[in-house]
């Protein structure tokens, strides 16, 4: 297939497998201005599939940076009422949400970290209904990637801009399984992830113990926790694929029972900056020390967010996953988290505990399920990572050895 053929199949995959658009359903597409070609294909495929109306929310790194650099505190700390109302409408209507990620990983490099954090908090507060609907799977949503020149040059600095962008598109298509019949490929892949999640759900480990040359961390798991992977169902019973690519199975930790230290094994692209060399120490579920070789000021601001000083996700990804074996650092969490075991600071997904969707925030916290407006994944896996599952009676079961399923 040539580029145009693969791009069209990619758009169809996003619509049919990513969010599984239903007849008459509204669709919200978040996408950068430099991805107009893909945007038009997604819109066309959505209408062909039966979408009621497709709304495109254009993004632009330059405009976003200029706003954060120049806006007065009044505007930096407040979202217009119409945007808040729009977010509530998206949640109430259970619109299908498609997020296409293509930003420059360094888009906000050099901008005052406090201003970036202030704007992120403003967005989180204003869009809380959308966040709630998303993490509780009240609607269908997916996050996918698209190659931009700035991002591509970060990944492939040895290539010129055109060649780097073409190469990144190839990798995006490959990791998203854009073959002659990508929908069928994803059905097979999802089934494999479901099998791993089913085994972990049967075991119901009390805790997981992570060890490697740079990590010694014990993470408690809540009673009746639920591992998920592959396709999911929203509250209407509609299947969707939250991330493409995805190689993970994941659950919620007990955020009161996390102890030890863990070292990030890949850079993290967060808030328009790249953080490197992160290390966290935990005691009784809380971060008691956090350092970064690069991006310390950004990390410090992140940890000030309510609930961001504990974990909300535990995710297992084998080192033999295709993304890991490519040897490429994507500087993009969607891809790098699917090359490595990862953890997330902040919010847990309530559905990762039986009955969690029906629990209030207070009830979730009583079960050790973290509540936050923040959710930031960071990568901790490697070919040297071993993970043991520890059962209620103290039995130790190997889960990962040398980075792969035991």
Overview in brief:
The chain is of the alpha+beta class and 406 residues long. It is 36% helix and 24% strand. β14 (279-283) and β15 (286-291) form a beta hairpin.
Helicity, in percent? 25-40%
CA-atom Rg in angstroms: 20 Å
Structural class: alpha+beta
Largest sheet entry: 8 strands, antiparallel
Indicate the low-confidence ranges by residue numbers.
none
Q: Can you list the strand order of the major beta sheet?
A: 15-14-11-6-5-19-20-21
Instruction: Please report which band the strand proportion falls in: under 5%, 5-15%, 15-25%, 25-35%, 35-45% or over 45%.
Output: 15-25%
How many runs of DSSP E, i.e. beta strands? 21
**Spatial gap, N to C terminus:** 37 Å
Give me the number of helical elements. Answer: 14
Output mean pLDDT.
96
Rough outline:
globular
Structural description of this entry:
The chain is α+β, with helices and mostly antiparallel strands and 406 residues long. The mean pLDDT is 96. It contains 14 helices and 21 strands. Strand 1, helix 2 and strand 2 form a beta-alpha-beta unit. The protein has an eight-stranded antiparallel β-sheet. The chain has a five-stranded antiparallel β-sheet with strand order 7-10-16-17-18, covered by helices on one side. Strands 2-1-3-4 form a four-stranded parallel β-sheet. It is 36% helix and 24% strand.
């Amino acid at each position: 297939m040539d580029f145009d053929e693969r791009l069209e199949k990619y758009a169809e995959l996003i619509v049919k497998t990513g969010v599984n658009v239903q007849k008459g359903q509204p669709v919200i597409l978040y996408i950068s201005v430099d991805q107009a070609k893909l945007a038009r294909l997604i819109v066309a495929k959505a209408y062909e599939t039966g979408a009621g109306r497709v709304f495109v929310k254009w993004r632009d790194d330059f405009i976003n940076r200029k706003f954060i650099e120049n806006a007065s505190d009044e505007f930096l700390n407040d979202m217009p009422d119409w945007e808040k109302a729009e977010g509530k409408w998206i949640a109430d209507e259970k619109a299908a949400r498609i997020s296409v990620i293509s930003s420059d990983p360094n888009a906000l490099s050099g901008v005052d970290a406090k201003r970036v954090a202030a704007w992120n908090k403003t967005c989180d507060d204003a869009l809380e209904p959308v966040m709630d609907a998303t993490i509780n799977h009240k609607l269908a949503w997916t996050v996918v990637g698209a190659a931009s020149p700035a991002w591509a040059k970060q990944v492939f600095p040895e290539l010129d801009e055109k060649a780097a962008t073409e190469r990144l598109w190839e990798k995006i298509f490959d990791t998203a399984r854009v073959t002659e019949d990508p929908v069928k490929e994803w059905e097979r892949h999802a089934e494999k992830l479901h099998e791993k999640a089913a085994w972990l759900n049967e075991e119901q480990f009390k805790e997981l113990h992570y060890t490697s040359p740079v990590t010694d961390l014990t993470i408690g798991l809540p009673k009746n926790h639920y591992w998920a992977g592959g396709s999911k169902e929203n509250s209407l019973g509609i299947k969707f694929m939250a991330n493409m690519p995805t190689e993970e199975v994941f659950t919620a930790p007990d955020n009161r029972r996390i102890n030890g230290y863990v070292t990030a094994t890949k850079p993290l692209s967060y808030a328009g900056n790249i953080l490197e060399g992160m290390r966290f120490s935990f005691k009784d579920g809380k971060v008691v020390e956090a350092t970064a070789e690069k991006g310390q000021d950004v990390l410090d601001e992140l940890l000030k967010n309510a609930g961001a000083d504990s974990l909300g996700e535990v995710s297992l990804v084998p080192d033999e996953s295709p993304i890991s074996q490519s040897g490429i650092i994507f500087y993009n969490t969607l891809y790098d988290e699917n090359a490595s075991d990862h953890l997330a600071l902040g919010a847990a997904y309530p559905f990762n505990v039986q009955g969690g969707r029906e629990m209030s925030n207070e009830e979730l916290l009583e079960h050790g399920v973290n509540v936050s407006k923040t959710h930031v994944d960071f990568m901790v896996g490697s070919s040297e990572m071993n993970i043991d599952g520890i059962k209620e009676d103290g039995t130790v079961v190997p889960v990962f050895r040398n980075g792969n399923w035991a």
